[in-house]
Specification:
Order of helices and strands: HEEHEHEHEHHEHEHEHEHEEE
Number of helices: 10
CATH superfamily of the largest domain: Dihydrofolate Reductase, subunit A
CATH architecture of the largest domain: 3-Layer(aba) Sandwich
Helix content: 25-40%
Distance between the termini: 35 Å
CATH topology of the largest domain: Dihydrofolate Reductase, subunit A
Number of domains: 2
Low-confidence stretches: none
Largest sheet: 7 strands, mixed
Shape: elongated
Amino acid sequence: MDKSLKDEQYITKAIALARKGEGAVSPNPLVGAIIVKNGSIIGRGYHKRFGTEHAEINAFKDADKKGNKNKLVGSTLYVTLEPCCHWGNTPPCVDEIIKRKIKRVVIAHKDQNPLINGKGTNKLRIHGIKVDLGVLEEEAKKLNYPFLKYMRTQMPFVILKMGISLDGKITHPKKRYITNKKSLDYVHHIRNSVDAILVGHNTYKKDKPRLTTRLKGGKNPRPVVLPKSKTDLTKLLKHLGKEQVTSILVEGGQETATSFLNHNLVDKVYLFLAPEFFGGGELAMFGKLDKIVKLKNIHVEKLDENIMISGYVKQNR
């Protein structure tokens, strides 16, 4: 098999590993690592929780545990993000890579953290390690859009979620929920992946949402309720960013959703569509938008009789 195809296969496996850390590593990024020697995987690892060992170190420990310590010399390390080269909660990963005498490191994309941002790859090259950068870069970046935006702006990645009828209504004439159980379960997985969840004053007062993640082993995001008075949303997001909130799920009603869109603060949208028409008596999903909002990189998924549509806001990606 062509070397580039093999590289893509191993990076794909590393991306799948990285996802296992979802909801547990923020404000750090999701990272997965795989070590290969003579066409065989000898170690796997991912960043499991903030403040603990990074993916590369866990992959080395996995190799040691499996009796592959001596095989590490001259092996290839595949990692979804540039290895760190600074002291934080843990020692620099590049030092361990050098110590273990890895021959080649294949990296999906550069770490935009200013403490790293190319310094990790440079140090590896200075020590004679071959570095290949940019394998499945865009796929790997999708793992960490919140982290990448946070590094760039110091503001959280904003996800807008709405459950709607076929005619775009967000209130049901008879029930509390518009969508089905499968859609609600999906939303709890989204909640588990974010740092905070936001609702408007009216939604909180009327629906009294718990704003929790009802998943076994899941984590509850930080609840944020907008006050009744008008709020400077940009200022709020900057404040949350200072408190290391890298992602926030907006589950507000019409007024809150419209305000976030009109201030160009939404990065990603999830719409959960129920197969019903409610008519003119129910509340529409948006008020007056200042401009047309376009989505790209659309994903559509069937959730029993519901449809989930997600996409990234075009002007923000």
